[in-house]
């Protein structure tokens, strides 16, 4: 500033007759964020010897805090000879607003030591600090103090208390605070709805929204965003569409948070047309959340190509992906076992420095495992500095999918030793791994220790895993007793596991009971009819097979067609049973026939029991020879170079005959073949399978 300007400025200061005028100027600079001018004013006050009373110092502390110059505020506060309630409150608020949460709590405690009684603003600021730090117990103490000081039902304090309890996962206490309030406003309602949604009580969020509307409380974009999130989680399509109408009526359709919530809601209810319409409504308010919501929807719909295309588009727009974008895309690759795309995304993850992100790394562990590359999955896990429960669960799940029960158990021991507590998901994977590996006693032991040792209450899926564990091993009597003693009826997966075990071990009577139960739960599921038909066919009860097929026709139940697919040349090639549609059909079937001759010479004998048809053995053998997984393997052998893994995926359980044939194929062609069916991986090499013929 020039000398003349300084003189003018000094004269202006000297004409001030009282502190109120100076305070007003400081306040105006604070509101307009004019830090430079505020500092000049502060300098002139010091130079001219203007007395900095407590009143003015409080305004300066508030100004520096709000302008994010906290060091200046702290120095002023520390030098104050006399502090009042406003001084303490300004400092606590300054620390809280600048994310110095521990200092905010410490200053509040020092205020109490100084025997200063807090006001509603001090309470609100320190409660917000507790929210950010997750200090719910200290928050409870503040709640008690607020009640003692007469602020428990004050709207500002109550809103922050409800927000703290809900964000810390104590939704019951949040509800108590809410119900005890004499009056409520949109801030308190928003805190409750957001709390319900974030704690997984989505129905509670919708009910709270309806109460809010009925009481005539003003609806804002925060409320709409949280309620739309609840609709998406509940797959409540109609409620979501009604809220969309409210959004349009209130003019919030261009509000970015609401637009993102709408895109996400439509994606979660599997209405991608609606999601795309919202997304494309106006190109201006779009960010990474908008794109990630759309990608999530495509992934849920198994439309991985569209998800990847959306990713390409967001990069073209100059938007940088975040960890949620990558997690969703990699999850899609894992579900589709799209290895090539997954590897490319892994490269992008490294490029954007998300390879150390625990969430993204956990998804990568899962992706490589689901694509059959067990060693790569382990390598990614080993590169994680501090594995979270997500990473440990991913690795245990990978071992389970590959039938490596002992490795899954060892990983659980390592997880516990590293101080990470197992949860419900951990035990589902662990029990699955024990089931596939035939580790009956170990599986039962861990099931029985879930609640006693780890405080994890077994749920439906855990009981279903035990049914599968006992049934797969042939202990059908024990499985039946276990079902009778369960605290609830088995779910569809439980009955399906029991029915599958009855088919493997030829127990017709128990199989009929299981099939009837499964048909009651899922009348449109063809699995029960097919498995029961296989049991009858094995016993050559062709009349019963015929009756079952008639029952399926009458009920319009269609058998799920088996198909297999394989990645080659950056393209997914899909094959059905006796599939003649591929452009390379001639070469594929020539290879397939050549393989049959070779494996027969090596000792292969068709296992025709798995064909539930009353036809001659030669016809059965021909049908088996043209199963989708064999066609896919023949194609892979002529398309994928030696040295690259052959990974075939199938939507149904691989049949006993194909399992036997692939073992022989791996031997005669001297290549490793990995097959992922609907329950696990099989690694075939040199005439053997990793499952040890136990699957």
Automatic annotation (TrEMBL):
Residues 603-695 form the DYW domain. PPR repeats lie at residues 84-118, 185-219, 287-321, 388-422. Keywords: Repeat. GO terms for molecular function: RNA binding; zinc ion binding. Gene3D superfamilies: Tetratricopeptide repeat domain. It comes from the Eukaryota. It holds the Pfam family PPR_2. Belongs to the PPR family. PCMP-H subfamily. NCBIfam families: PPR. This is DYW domain-containing protein. The lineage of its organism: Eukaryota, Viridiplantae, Streptophyta, Embryophyta, Tracheophyta.
